Predict the 3D structure of the following.
Amino acid sequence: MAREHEDLQADVVIVGSGVAGALIAHQMSMAGKSVIMLEAGPRRPRWQIVENFRNAPDKMDFQAPYPSTEYAPHPQFSPDNGYLIQKGEQAYDAQYLRVVGGTTWHWAASTWRYLPQDFELKSRYGVGRDWPISYDDLEHYYQWAEEELGVWGPSDEELGSPRSKPYPMAPLPLSYNESTVKTRLNDNGFYVVTEPVARNSRPYDQRPTCCGNNNCMPICPIGAMYNGIFHVEKAEKAGARLIPEAVVYRVEAGEGGRITAVHYKDPQGNDYRVEGRYFVLAANGIETPKLMQISTSDAFPDGIGNSSGMVGRNLMDHPGTGISFLASEPLWPGRGPQEMTSVVGWRDGDFRSEYAGKKLHQSNVSRVDQMADQILSADGLLTGPALDERIRDRASRYVQFDCFHELLPHPENRIRPSATHRDALGIPKPEFHYAIDDYVRKSAVHTREAYGRIAELMGGTEISYSDDFANNQHICGTVIMGDDPSTAVVDGDCRCFDHDNLFLATSGTMPTVGTVNCTLTVAALALRISDTLKREV
Amino acid sequence: MTQHVYRHGLLMIMPLALLAGSATALGADQDQLERGAYIARTADCTACHTTDEDKPFAGGLAMPTPMGDIYSTNITPDPDTGIGGYSLEEFTRVLREGVARDGHRLYPAMPYTAYTKMPDEDIQALYTWFQEGVEPVHQENRESDIPWPLNMRWPLAVWNWAFVDTGAYEPRDDKSDEWNRGAYLVQGPTHCGTCHTPRGLAMQEKASDDTGKGFLSGADLGGWHAFNITSDHNSGIGGWSDDEVFSYLKTGAAHGKGQAAGPMGEAVEHSLRYMSDEDIRAIVTYLRDVPAVNDGDEMPRYGHEGQGSDASRLRGQDSSDGQHTGENATDGAALYLGNCATCHQADGSGSPDGYYPSLVHNSVVGTSHSDNLTQVILNGVHRANNDGEIFMPAFRDQLSDEQISALASYVQTQFGDPDAKGVDVGRVKEIRDDTP
């Protein structure tokens, strides 16, 4: 039986404390509204995450510094904790966090705006869907989000997304690695630009300047890179109440479909009921549709917001392929942040009617420990100066590119609650049915050719391609936005068609995945939701 | 060379402009305005009189006193709420005697006890600039929170009679021009003694110049310790080179000695960094000659060698081990490595360029006056210098009082004095409560 608590009610109840939920909590608290934020995971101090990272044996396992909890598990891969149930031909092995502040604890901080064309994929190219809103509807919110998060971006390069104001900050200088490769590629017909990122190039918003620790993923040790935790803290200072370790497992609807409460369990399994006037689900593109689908009732037998049957469907991501090689000259990746440039010449074009748009990006991750591992595995007898020299040579010449291909929304790609696998609190685990479409596969053939040309231009040897369509954690489409209640879950304001007072603040609302990281768009949509809420609450 | 600056100042402020007819509408020439602006920088008027960057000099800063808060006043040329109606004589009386136009006496939070040393020509230039170079802002002054009868101000006349040595600086013939210029700047406009000279029972500075006992020998004020900056080798700054003192004043940092934060950081940001190299050198020359006051220190604050890194001891720990990395952990070494070592390095050596200061050979770490260290951890550092911004984030929202106490104590003993008594958790709480 749910415990009733008089204090468990607020004007706005937000499920999830990542960047989207925290931005809304901050805005609504500043507007004088009472706010409760419910976060399934625990609060983790930055310094503790930093020490976890330093103590972790595998530095490239970005989940490792954030131990999963029994009561609010999130995916762990070394070893696999079995939280994600894979049923499709392609595993959807998303790396997200259930922790106060959300997954932007370990993101790349890339804060691209989508292109105006990304909002009109169907009408321009006859594939995918159109958004019910345009780029122009979002431009003001993009700018606002860039100022909230603290974004640096180039002022002298055309990125294809028109701006009303300059970026809040100028970029740090490119690393030698990236400036050398960028120049070489741009001299040979590629279009490489400096990437906009939510990372400080000067003291901004009480956070320090990036000093190039080169472990943005899995943790910026000094908070120079933006994390959602900053807006959680701002929201709390403005009066919002955060309840961590509150695992929401049911959304309750009343008269006329209005949402009346959400129910959560604490780690001991005790039940609580939280009432509100307005509700925001901001629990990412997987946990949000899972929660909606398990919230069944007589009035809503398929779950909350699901009269269209689209909740959990149209699952998208950016299936990635890659290349690595040794350049003919030392480039010394590892100075500065992990990634500062992107190849953007194939984000848009008439080819999008035939195959996927994409963005390629060069890694600037230090490869010293990876190369040392490889060398020692190959020749365990190598020691002393010879070993050092070998590591130095290979780590300095290592080049890696990866990419994002735009997957189209297909209803059969979906996440649903597992009927057989439950977590420690008895809540179903997420189950995936996922496949890579020919739209991406065809594009990947072209990408491989581009990779080959890059290797050629850099004098590459020991070339290795990775064609595994790696997951890039940009979880889109699962609570899809549209004009038509019979084919979409939310309208252009991210409001559920079935529930007037329920908003979804997640990349799951995005009808196309585009070719770039989705977080800035999520943040812009969240700020747009806050404007709607300020008018209504 | 500098003595002529105010002796010949007469030449500068002789209203040549008026005579030559090349004046602005109100009669001030550009040189005089620039001179007045420079003096205002030197005297750091903005430190107390600007609370809103969009309304420079409109006042309103709360300054706590044992009797209640008092508030800085509007010194823009607004005729109703500022000093627009002041004549030069009335303005001079404020700076020299601490008496306002309407006859009420200022609390000596206004350092007229130092400004009194300004020569007439400097006061006139300052007057001209405040009347013509500052935008008027209409903003009413705020009454002090001091209750009756303590708010009666006539006893200040007695206080002034007892403690204030009214009148312009008199150059000493036995010292160089540079020395005299430095003495004037230190005793007068830059009012170093306001913070650095200990105060007596009546809150008066115990000495107003180098002839008085204890001048610039260090004091606690507003939750910070203003260090002994006399010429004593161990307790003062006698062991610093001229270039180090110069660098500290001009940029806020002297590698291997100390960095400015808090009120001193503000003094660098708003005042000292704008001063000419000649004036800074004059200050250095004078400070060198301020009589040494030894507090019994056996070595300088920056002299400690440090104990190296504890990183290896803590590597390979199970990451779920609550003792070292749990949310409430109070292992100073673990707190240091997780919160500080990324920039200051595990062994406390900082970055080679000094942007992240070494904690070894650092005055703030090596002193037994631990308030400054606590302040910096709690509230961070944000100081502009002529090359950009110096920034350290605040940790008040990241760490508890117990954790800050453990961390500061670790920093003291690991990188400063191994026998330091540590930082009391109660004092951390007091400083936290007293700062925003």
